[in-house]
Known about the structure:
The structure holds 2 protein chains of 2 kinds.
Chain A: E1 5-14, E2 22-28, E3 31-36, E4 50-54, E5 57-62, H1 64-76, H2 80-89
Chain B: H1 3-11, H2 16-29, E1 36-42, H3 43-51, H4 54-57, E2 62-69, H5 77-87, E3 92-96, H6 110-115, E4 120-122, H7 126-135, E5 140-147, H8 152-165, E6 170-176, H9 179-188, E7 196-199, H10 201-207, H11 213-219, E8 223-225, H12 230-246, E9 251-253, H13 265-274, E10 275-277, E11 280-283, E12 287-290, E13 294-296, H14 305-308, H15 324-329, H16 360-378
Parallel strand pairs in B: 1-2, 1-7, 3-4, 3-5, 5-6, 7-8, 8-9
Antiparallel strand pairs in B: 10-13, 11-12
Helix pairs in contact in B: 2-12, 3-16, 8-13
The structure holds iron/sulfur cluster.
Amino acid sequence: MCLAIPGKIIEISSGAGAGSQDSALVDVVGVRRRVDLGLLQEDRPGPGDWVLIHVGFAMSKISEQDALDQMNTLRMLGESEAAMQEVQGYGGEEVEDQKPI
Amino acid sequence: MPQGDRVRFVDEFREPKLITRTADEIRRLADPGRHYRLMEVCGGHTHAIYRFGLKDILPENIELIHGPGCPVCVLPMGRIDDGLSMAQDPDVIFTAFGDMMRVPGTHGSPLEHKARGMDIRIVYSPSDALKLARANPGKHVMFFAIGFETTEPSTALTLMRARAEGIHNFSVFCNHVTIIPAIRAILDSPDMRLDAFIGPGHVSTVIGCRPYEWIAQNENKPIVVSGFEPLDMLQSIVMLLRQLKAGEARVENQYKRVVPWEGNRAALRAMAEVFQLRPYFEWRGLGFISQSALRIRDTYAEWDSEQRFSIPGIRVTDPKAAQCGEVLKGVLKPHQCKLFGHECTPEHPIGALMVSSEGSCAAYFNYEHRKMEMVNILSPTA
Ligand code: SF4
């Protein structure tokens, strides 16, 4: 649960989306999910940026290289499946558009 | 591990040459006449250390002591019982992260309670618990919140949203704890001798590096905030050894690519808005530690499970033979617990340290213990 999962921002949306003022559609290894951007108000990411995600909230902006390394670390830790399960679980039962990029 | 195996394993890492060079640097820096006790505070590091077999790369006089940084491991069983007592109300939906589901309470884990018919659901984000509340206006959704500073801002923002939207059928059972007082308690404990700390990576993205300065200044112990890759941890150990060699004690940031020195101000603001420190809180194994946990402020009382429900305030002592406390403090190694590997296994955990992949007992069992079993099978006389 202390895993941080890297994801790439596809689009930012504000206002809409079940009450979250500030959210983004992110892509994590082909799975698309909505994450909250409320914790990055001071360093707002844009489409194409990479972020570290923890329990459905983007925690910090990172470089693409660090994102790839982080995914690799999760894989080496044997945690990539758990991480993907977590990402797929975001949004509860509601399944959003899942087309890989 | 034979030399050949070590090299093969190292090869799978990023920049294997650099890893070997860094390991050599550690050997050069470590004074053979000295025994080093370095504590990794974060459970994520504990998991990585076992998984990557870092012990096999390090010289023998560098001992890694596992710290209290696994949030499910430090939660006293009574709090789980308290949370589950609310779930008995048929109008309540109990939600928690997956990590909580197998943690034993006195009468079984949340998963076992679910099997008995309670409405208990896994969520992967506190905001999904809030979403469930929106979708089920006739029910009360309770979120069992655990975690250190990495997770606290997310709970805080979720509560701020609940209030802003006026969602009244949602509350949080707050079990959030803070890392600094736990480190202080460990340093105060008389049976503990430590030389330096490997600081938590993701907690520090929120709190930054400043809060550790007292460890360096007052306790005269170096601390290096570290990433989770093998190379990160080895580099952090090099930085610690350099400081120890020079007789220094400073806070350094090895994980600069993710951790800003000042932390995340938006996250800290959200936490300050919603939470305040409890005067004291019980930690499994460490006992009551003052100002070591968060409660929800009275301005958010309506969304605080502890103020909305009558919580029994259960206190349970762990089974006598279970030595979770000693293991949590780093006084005993996991396999030195009398129950390790016999009564207590990942399939049948007695303590939470055996449940979470970040718990040192589970990490030790899954890697070291299985490795030794393999050795015994392959060469039974060994
Ligand atoms: S082996 Fe089980 S009972 Fe013993 S310390 Fe570990 S979790 Fe606790």
